Amino acid sequence: MSTSEVAQRVAELLGQDRVWLERIEAGASRGAYSVSAREAGSPVAFLLVDDSGGGDSGSTMDLAREAALLRRLALGGVPVPEVLGVLSAPPGLLMEFVDGHARLEPGEAEAVGGSYMAHLAEVHRLDPASVFPDCDAVAEGAVRAELDRWVDTARRSGALSVPLVAVGASVLHRHRPTAPERAVVVHGDAGAGNFLVHDGEITALLDWEMSHAGDWHEDLGWLHARSVMTPFGELADRYAEYEMAAGVQIDPVRLRWCRALAAWKCVVAVEAKLRAPDPGTPAMISQLVTLVYQPVLASLLLQVVGGEGEIDEPDPVPASVDAEVKILDEALAEPLGEGARSGLEHLRVIAAQRRGRAEAHAADLSAAGFAATDDLDDDLLPARLQALGRDALRAVTASARAQRVLARARERGLLA
Mean pLDDT across the stretch 206-224? Predict the structure, then answer.
């Protein structure tokens, strides 16, 4: 269906003769549009359209199910946009336009942090059966089912072929802590960027596509994961605000595991998109995200298995020249647009480092006493994760932007 046909369907849902759609920045797998009743007019609605092209990012929440979820959350008093209608072809979700911005200004995180954590605590007080009618109300079963579902996503999408994803799945299964007795409604992507602020007040909680029943610690783990790319002030303050609002005490063991789970889900989702026929997100953006999150994930998994989490800084790997590098050099010698040149230069660095990275990683494994890369003996897991973390840090050197993002995350204490 063309954009004009989508606009006509939206107009019918709103009772208008005509509407104007303007594409805006939104989630990675969905197109987002502001809807106006006149050209260049103020928005009257917000439209999400599923243009993921069939990519498997870990979400089981299509837009029709998300619409039903939003209606149930609204009945529970959660500040979410009102659902105005659902489109079927292409799948679309039409909602009221809520005033506010998602990108926090400097200092704004501390100003609204307590309010957001209080909203999150209220979400966790909801009866999960009222939001997810078929969920497991016992947290232990809900957490296990959610992890199994994501492992299946990683397997089907090809993301499980990434060594750190495969080792991470094993670590998360083996070291899964005992969950609280009662499952809660978990947002599943909580943190800065997924709520709106207007005049110093939170006006809506957004992006519920990965919501599920589970352990409330997972949303606190997502605060850490999202803060790697989207800072949310001092996380220790956010956690203290949550404890006060929810009247609970955070379990450090469960929080440590849930931080690793959230980072692992990030890597699985992005690696799945990179393998999708039409991922819906520019590959360079997805590549940046996986480059940044893999060292973070290795560090968090190290903490889960009892280590300090600090990854030893690897030595630079020597560049080499092969046929692939020469072909890329020839392409780079031609007149190119900025985006094409940037992408080819990135690929050239990866190609030139490939042999050196492989040799350095093999040396790390050999020094740790590995006879085979599929050896996941518990006693050897810290050394295996250390080797994978060092390889992930080598990979980051292919992108100056990824290096900057990771350095800022380390400065904020998000990477040991």
Answer: 96
**DSSP string spanning 233-290?**
S-HHHHHHHHHHHHT----HHHHHHHHHHHHHHHHHHHHHHHHSSS-SS-HHHHHHHH
Q: Mean per-residue pLDDT for 286-306? A: 96
Angle, helix 163-174 to helix 381-396, in steps of 10 degrees? 140
Task: Inform me whether the pLDDT recorded for 1 exceeds 70.
Answer: no
pLDDT above 70 (res 382): yes
Structure tokens at 207: 């992006």
* Half-sphere CA count of 180, side-chain side, radius 13 A: 17
Site of tokens 């943190």: 191
Alpha-carbon gap, residue 225 to 263, rounded angstroms: 6
Segment 299-318, tens digit of pLDDT: 999 999 998 889 999 999 99
Which among 295, 289, 358, 351 is positioned nearest to 326, based on CA atoms?
A: 351
Per-residue confidence band for 55, with pLDDT thresholds at 50, 70 and 90: very low
- Contacts of residue 340, defined as CB under 8 A and 6 or more positions apart, other chains included, come to none
Distances (CA, A) of 320 to 305, 387, 400: 36, 22, 19
Q: What is the pLDDT of residue 29?
A: 60
Mean pLDDT of the region 174-195: 94
In the prediction, which pLDDT does 54 show? Answer: 45
Measured between alpha carbons, how far is 122 from 53 in angstroms, rounded to an integer?
Answer: 35
**pLDDT reported for residue 308:** 87
* Per-residue exposure over 369-397, b if at least 16 CB sit within 10 Å of its own CB, e if not: ebeeeeeeeeebbbbbbbbbbbbbbbbbb
**Partners of residue 95 on adjacent β-strands:** 46, 83
| Contact between 227 and 116 (Cβ < 8 Å) | no
Q: How far is CA 11 from CA 2, 6, 22, 50, 70, in A?
A: 14, 9, 14, 18, 22
Q: How far apart are CA 163 and CA 374, in angstroms?
A: 9
